[in-house]
Amino acid sequence: MRVMPGWMWHSNYGANDRDYLINFTATYGLHTIEDRKELWSAIENLNSNVQNSQLIMGDFNSILKGKDRSTLVMDAEIRDFEDMMNN
């Protein structure tokens, strides 16, 4: 669990009557690309170490398509977020 900067909170949930475990992560992406890169890296690391179903939700402060924002978006911002989502 890491809660600042670019915070991420991670917990596990299991059901006693079923044989499964879900990993839940709540996250918040900071406002600059450089600050978010550290968070993307932490999420990728978490993904590589988790064997169970996983739910990651929160405010990533990033978009996958330039048309999703009314202001100019740098290609690097979209590419880094997309790479993290695909890994």
TrEMBL record:
Domain of life: Eukaryota
Protein's recorded name: Endonuclease/exonuclease/phosphatase domain-containing protein
Lineage: Eukaryota, Viridiplantae, Streptophyta, Embryophyta, Tracheophyta
